[in-house]
Design brief:
This protein is mostly helical. The chain is 43% helix and 2% strand. The chain is globular, with a radius of gyration of 26 Å. The protein binds a DNA duplex through residues 131, 134-135, 138, 221-222, 224-227, 249-251, 264-266, 268-273, 275. This is HTH myb-type domain-containing protein.
DNA sequence: GGCAGAATAT
DNA sequence: CATATTCTGC
């Protein structure tokens, strides 16, 4: 008897270990949840299965309960994510998943696909999106207090704001700090409701879109604009609407962003940086051998192909961020409310640019992304092996 | 003169 | 490194 008891105990322990292992596994996989909802499910199911098989020992039961608890948690999370995604549809979604995008989805690659090197980027490749990450996570400027900003201002109060430079927007009211956002003034939102100001998206620690209060000291150095997550999101959104970083112009972007206090120069600068960080990575290993074949993940004994590979191209062959966060539920990239300009002009521009690029920048694998309009898809410059655009049903 | 983009500067 | 500012050409 004793022996038996011992044996049971042993088994129990083993089982628990197993459970733990599984749990861990699931955690790992959860990272890919967005892309591979199926995998999670499978693992989870396996989980249940094992839990339910035999043993009714109290300990096991406890385990079971615990597990179910965690499961519920996961589900809840999933749901939350989903709802968030769907509810945001406007465009924020797009940017929201940028960080994840980098690892396997052909993200919205504005003019230059740069993506497709999936195989490796899984863990590395941080190069490209690194800066993005920083931008997104950047915790906007703390309140006032810090630094000498106020001091300087007071010293050089000069305040000869005769010309008023850029926009009239909110004048001083340094105190207002946040709270504003109202921005009732400024250009009327015209048509699209646009992003309802501070979208719940994340830990936006009470920071307004326009970054901060701008003092009147115009003769002075501009206060560094911090591109908060929100701001950047808008930026991306605008970009998306305009057809990519290569097509959009600072002014357009600024208009679309509808952030008061935001100047052209600021947008220009940001855009410059954006482009910079986006173009370079392209030249790198565009695709090795089979890289183009959508990676298959082995789940259980089933191969699963991440949904991103079903990425669709937007009519104008632009961003198409989609990023299929939850795979199946992938919200289709929203279209620009004002679809007017984005069509002809931009396409033309696109073509021109592509020509230019293909001409004097042979070294850089510029990409092709014009699928939508059926226009070119330059056989990607010279990158090693053929790149048969293996696009799943478009 | 405005604007966009690149090049510098901070 | 992230922005700002300046320089250029259109």
């Amino acid at each position: 008897m004793q022996f038996f008891a011992e044996k049971m105990h042993h088994q129990k322990m083993e089982f628990c270990d197993y459970i733990e292992a599984l749990e861990e596994e699931r955690k790992k996989i959860q990272v890919f949840n967005k892309e591979l909802p199926l995998s999670l499910e499978l693992v989870t199911q396996g989980f249940l299965f094992f839990v339910c098989v035999e043993f009714d020992d109290s300990a096991i039961i406890a385990c079971k309960q615990q597990l179910s608890g965690t499961m519920a948690e996961y589900n809840l999370n999933d749901q939350l994510e989903c709802s968030e995604q769907t509810s945001t549809e406007e465009g924020p979604v797009f940017e929201e998943f940028m960080p994840i995008k980098k690892r396997s989805s052909p993200d919205y690659d504005d003019g230059d696909d740069d993506e497709e090197q999936h195989s490796h980027k899984i863990l590395k490749d941080s190069t490209k999106s690194d800066w993005l990450r920083s931008v997104q996570l950047w915790n906007p400027d703390p309140p006032s207090t810090n630094e000498d900003v106020p001091r300087k201002a007071s010293i050089e109060v000069v305040k000869r704001n005769g010309g008023g430079a850029f926009q009239p927007f909110q004048r001083d009211e340094i105190t207002n700090g946040k709270a504003n956002n109202a921005s009732s003034n400024d250009k009327a939102p015209s048509s699209s409701p646009q992003i309802p100001a501070t979208s719940s998206t994340g830990p936006v620690t009470g920071e307004n879109v326009d970054g901060s209060s701008k003092n009147e000291d115009q003769g002075q150095k501009k206060k560094r604009r911090s591109w908060s997550q929100e701001l950047h999101k808008r930026f991306l959104h605008a970009l998306q609407q305009l057809g990519g970083a290569e097509l959009a112009t600072p002014k357009q972007i600024r208009d679309l962003m509808k952030v008061d206090g935001l100047t052209n120069d600021e947008v220009k600068s940001h855009l410059q940086k954006f482009r910079l960080h986006h173009r370079r990575p392209n030249s790198i290993i565009r695709n090795n051998a089979n890289s183009q074949a959508a990676p298959l993940f082995l789940v259980g004994n089933i191969f699963v192909q991440p949904p991103e590979y079903a990425a669709v191209a937007t009519s104008s062959g632009e961003l198409t961020t989609d990023t299929a966060p939850t795979g199946i539920y992938a919200p289709v990239a929203s279209h620009p409310p004002a679809s007017t300009h984005t069509s002809e002009a931009s396409i033309k521009k696109l073509q021109v640019k592509q020509l230019e690029l293909s001409e004097h920048s042979n070294s850089e694998g510029r990409a092709n992304h014009g699928e939508g309009a059926g226009n070119s898809n330059s056989p990607d410059s010279s990158s090693s092996t053929h790149t048969t655009t293996t696009s799943p049903g478009y």
